[in-house]
Amino acid sequence: MLFHIRMDVHLPHNLDPQRRAALVEREKEYSQQLQRAGKWPHLWRIVGEYANYSIFDVESADELHQLLSSLPLFPFLNIEVTPLATHPSAISLTR
Questions:
Q1: pLDDT of 36-56, one tens digit each?
Q2: For residues 31 and 93, what is the distance between their CA atoms, to the nearest angstrom?
Q3: Are 91 and 33 a contacting pair, CB within 8 Å?
Q4: Dist CA 28 CA 14 (whole Å)
């Protein structure tokens, strides 16, 4: 199942700089692990925002929820999820 995800990051301004750096590093490691596993095949930064658009390729909404809620930055994220389906006018019907 494919999902389009928008994630907006809202880290507190008074967050300890060392904690912030550690959270961001853990987030990078975890996201790259998911990318290598094929669960997070697309990740784009939104210009001018601390936000991203992503495509996740997972078996179920439950798996997606587990992956997203395991993100180290999850407590600081606003997340919008849109399920995707194959469009009948698409040239390629494969993922």
A1: 999 999 999 999 999 999 999
A2: 27
A3: no
A4: 21
